[in-house]
């Protein structure tokens, strides 16, 4: 369960970074 949450957090972070990069 913790692993799944960790993966979800990583995905969210990646999406945030991607959004910032594409936004810029």
List the keywords:
24 residues; mainly alpha; 1 helix
Describe this structure in words.
This protein has 1 helix and no strands. It is mainly alpha-helical. The model has no long low-confidence stretch (mean pLDDT 90).
pLDDT below 50 for ≥5 consecutive residues: which ranges? none
Overall geometry:
rod-shaped
The helicity comes to over 70%
| Main sheet attributes: strand count, strand direction, barrel closure | none
- Compute the number of helices: 1
Strand percentage, roughly?
Answer: under 5%
Nearest-integer average pLDDT: 90
What structural class should be given to the helix and strand makeup? mainly alpha
Q: Total strand count, please? A: 0
Produce the secondary structure layout.
Blueprint: H1 2-23
Concise description?
By secondary structure, the chain is an all-alpha fold. The chain is built from 1 helix and no strands.
